[in-house]
Amino acid sequence: MDTLALALARWQFAVLTIIHFFFVPLTLGITILLAILETLYVRTQDEVYKDMVKFWGKVFLVNFALGVVSGIVQEFQFGMNWSEYSRFMGDIFGAPLAIEALLAFYLESTFIGVWVFGWEKLSPKLHAATMWLIALGSNISALWILIANSFMQEPVGYVIRNGRAEMVDFFALITNPNVWVQFPHVLAAGIATAGFVILGLSAYLLLRGRRDAMVMRSFRVAAVYALLGTLLVVLVGHTQAQHIVAVQPMKMAAAEALQRSENPASFSILTITDEATGRELISLRIPYLLSILAYNRPSGEVKGIQELQAAYEARYGPGNYVPPINVTYWSFRLMVGAGFLMLALAAWAVYLVARERFADSPRFLKGLVWATALPYLASTTGWILTEVGRQPWIVFGLQRVEDAVSPTVSAGEIAFSLIFLLVLYILGMYAGVYLIGKHLRSAVASPQSVGAS
Q1: What span, in angstroms and rounded, lies between the C-alpha atoms of 302 and 410?
Q2: Same domain as 122, residue 57
Q3: pTM above 0.85?
Q4: Tens of pLDDT along 227-248?
Q5: Do 161 and 259 sit in the same domain of this protein?
Q6: 308 lies in which domain range?
Q7: Which of 43, 145, 328, 385 has the fewest C-beta atoms lying within 10 Å of its C-beta?
Q8: Which residues fall within 8 angstroms of residue 179, CB to CB, at 6 or more apart?
């Protein structure tokens, strides 16, 4: 195994996946919101709702196009850089990916075309139905991807034959317990992302003097949507964390830098660990709190890193089964910190909306413009926690990362493709930001009515 090739393959997959996932949550959340807004237009015949759908629909289309382009490359990496993983997992991983492409993605992309070109050709009810189908297709697409990923987190419904994992129970695959804590979390994150993006962009338009009915109502709706999404993220995230304690205890131990098992277990406020020795250099903890979070009671054992390492060695053989502690620990805290900051900002935005004071709070509006980065920070660090915290496994308990890389692809070939694709991805992101910025600048420059909605 070429150690450098392995490292570069991991970097390539991580970097390109993170960039691709910048576009996914917004698509999941904004399609649902657009469907709701267009339904309100159909029911009320209020033209402001139609203006909102058309205006924010352009942001969705730019985001969707970049998500599709950046996502195509992801699957090619399995064959190029991770052929041993594909050989081992192809019988299982291929099924949900094929269903995602043939069912969900085609449903989504087909009806996007109908929606874009059907404004004057379809009845209002039928046109609104196409957006609901787009929202359905987008979120079903995410579900099938997460079904595939959940097998990597918690393998079910398989047997090992001839050195390969083979599916024996498709129903077990789609009802994997991990799916039903992971998918609601991703869906809620999409709602929160869409809420904060529209909230931040509406704040930008308000700061630039555009205070017509469309912008004012967009802010109001986005504030409520962002608060709803963030509340769901916190609640579902709590359930997902409890599931991790049960099925991947090493991930939670690393996320808490918990070296020794504790009962009751304490929650870390600040822990700095020497990963080479496992020694805690700084440790500030709140007694009982981790047990409360893990079991909803002030008692209950949470396994520590050292005990789990010994147990894994006894089960899987010699090796290092401890994920990078500092990366896992800080990604968990950045995710949680960003989430609770989003909750506070969304709650304050709703409060200002209720008091009709949001348009006259310039400092808060400026903060919301910058806060559009928070859901992306939370999603990125959440996925880093999910994937890095599973190390050294690529498929938990079945295949290690170093056994999954392609044996015939050189480090130079991976480095070339990494640099080439990274440049393309950065250019794509720049194009997306430019197009959305141009859309906003055009809105600021356009004639506007000053009336309230």
Answers
A1: 42
A2: yes
A3: yes
A4: 999 999 999 999 999 999 999 9
A5: no
A6: 249-322
A7: 43
A8: 143, 146, 147, 150
